[in-house]
User: Which sequence fits this backbone?
Protein backbone atom coordinates (compact mmCIF):
# COMPACT_ATOMS: atom_id res chain seq x y z
CA UNK A 1 0.00 0.00 0.00
CA UNK A 2 1.31 3.42 -0.96
CA UNK A 3 1.09 5.85 1.95
CA UNK A 4 2.18 8.98 0.14
CA UNK A 5 0.61 11.63 -2.04
CA UNK A 6 2.32 14.16 -4.32
CA UNK A 7 1.47 17.69 -5.40
CA UNK A 8 3.67 20.50 -6.78
CA UNK A 9 6.90 18.61 -5.89
CA UNK A 10 5.73 18.04 -2.30
CA UNK A 11 5.15 14.67 -0.68
CA UNK A 12 2.61 14.03 2.01
CA UNK A 13 2.67 10.93 4.17
CA UNK A 14 -0.74 9.51 5.02
CA UNK A 15 -1.81 7.40 8.00
CA UNK A 16 -5.11 6.13 9.38
CA UNK A 17 -6.38 6.52 12.93
CA UNK A 18 -8.94 3.81 13.73
CA UNK A 19 -9.76 5.51 17.06
CA UNK A 20 -10.80 8.72 15.28
CA UNK A 21 -11.83 7.05 12.00
CA UNK A 22 -9.82 9.64 10.08
CA UNK A 23 -6.96 9.78 7.61
CA UNK A 24 -4.21 12.19 8.60
CA UNK A 25 -0.96 13.27 7.08
CA UNK A 26 2.10 15.48 7.17
CA UNK A 27 3.87 17.48 4.46
CA UNK A 28 7.44 16.15 4.17
CA UNK A 29 10.67 17.90 3.15
CA UNK A 30 10.00 21.28 4.77
CA UNK A 31 11.28 23.01 7.89
CA UNK A 32 7.79 23.43 9.34
CA UNK A 33 5.13 21.06 10.62
CA UNK A 34 2.13 21.09 8.32
CA UNK A 35 -0.55 18.47 8.79
CA UNK A 36 -3.81 17.67 7.02
CA UNK A 37 -6.65 15.21 7.52
CA UNK A 38 -9.84 13.91 5.98
CA UNK A 39 -12.51 11.26 6.36
CA UNK A 40 -12.24 10.10 2.74
CA UNK A 41 -9.57 9.79 0.06
CA UNK A 42 -11.06 12.72 -1.85
CA UNK A 43 -11.17 14.86 1.28
CA UNK A 44 -7.58 14.14 2.35
CA UNK A 45 -6.33 14.85 -1.19
CA UNK A 46 -8.21 18.16 -1.24
CA UNK A 47 -6.87 19.11 2.19
CA UNK A 48 -3.31 18.15 1.24
CA UNK A 49 -3.49 20.31 -1.90
CA UNK A 50 -4.86 23.22 0.15
CA UNK A 51 -2.14 22.78 2.80
CA UNK A 52 0.58 22.90 0.12
CA UNK A 53 -0.97 25.93 -1.60
CA UNK A 54 -1.30 27.75 1.75
CA UNK A 55 2.31 26.92 2.63
CA UNK A 56 3.58 28.17 -0.75
CA UNK A 57 1.66 31.42 -0.27
CA UNK A 58 3.13 31.84 3.25
CA UNK A 59 6.66 31.26 1.91
CA UNK A 60 6.08 33.78 -0.86
CA UNK A 61 4.75 36.40 1.57
CA UNK A 62 7.53 35.94 4.12
CA UNK A 63 10.45 35.17 1.78
CA UNK A 64 10.97 31.81 3.44
CA UNK A 65 12.70 28.92 1.63
CA UNK A 66 10.09 26.46 0.39
CA UNK A 67 11.95 23.17 0.78
CA UNK A 68 14.28 22.03 3.54
CA UNK A 69 17.85 22.73 2.53
CA UNK A 70 20.12 19.73 2.31
CA UNK A 71 23.91 19.89 2.38
CA UNK A 72 24.54 17.25 -0.29
CA UNK A 73 26.18 14.63 1.87
CA UNK A 74 24.74 11.79 3.93
CA UNK A 75 25.80 8.51 5.49
CA UNK A 76 24.64 5.28 3.94
CA UNK A 77 24.67 2.04 5.91
CA UNK A 78 25.07 -1.07 3.79
CA UNK A 79 26.36 -4.57 4.35
CA UNK A 80 30.12 -5.13 4.15
CA UNK A 81 29.52 -7.40 1.12
CA UNK A 82 27.71 -4.70 -0.85
CA UNK A 83 30.34 -2.15 0.21
CA UNK A 84 33.09 -4.43 -1.12
CA UNK A 85 31.30 -5.07 -4.43
CA UNK A 86 30.56 -1.35 -4.89
CA UNK A 87 34.18 -0.50 -4.17
CA UNK A 88 35.34 -3.06 -6.73
CA UNK A 89 32.89 -1.74 -9.34
CA UNK A 90 34.07 1.84 -8.77
CA UNK A 91 37.67 0.74 -9.23
CA UNK A 92 36.78 -1.05 -12.47
CA UNK A 93 35.09 2.12 -13.75
CA UNK A 94 37.99 4.25 -12.47
CA UNK A 95 35.68 6.48 -10.48
CA UNK A 96 35.29 7.15 -6.78
CA UNK A 97 32.80 5.28 -4.64
CA UNK A 98 30.93 8.58 -4.19
CA UNK A 99 30.65 8.95 -7.97
CA UNK A 100 29.34 5.38 -8.27
CA UNK A 101 26.68 6.00 -5.62
CA UNK A 102 25.69 9.30 -7.25
CA UNK A 103 25.31 7.56 -10.64
CA UNK A 104 23.20 4.81 -9.07
CA UNK A 105 20.92 7.33 -7.37
CA UNK A 106 20.52 9.34 -10.58
CA UNK A 107 19.68 6.17 -12.51
CA UNK A 108 17.04 5.24 -9.91
CA UNK A 109 15.53 8.72 -9.96
CA UNK A 110 15.38 8.77 -13.76
CA UNK A 111 13.65 5.37 -13.79
CA UNK A 112 11.00 6.72 -11.42
CA UNK A 113 10.45 9.78 -13.67
CA UNK A 114 11.54 12.29 -11.03
CA UNK A 115 11.38 15.84 -12.41
CA UNK A 116 14.35 17.17 -10.42
CA UNK A 117 17.12 15.81 -12.63
Assistant:
Amino acid sequence: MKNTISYKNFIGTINYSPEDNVLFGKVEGINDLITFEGKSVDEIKKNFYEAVDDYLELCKRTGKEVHKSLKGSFNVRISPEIHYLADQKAKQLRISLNQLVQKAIKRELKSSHTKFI
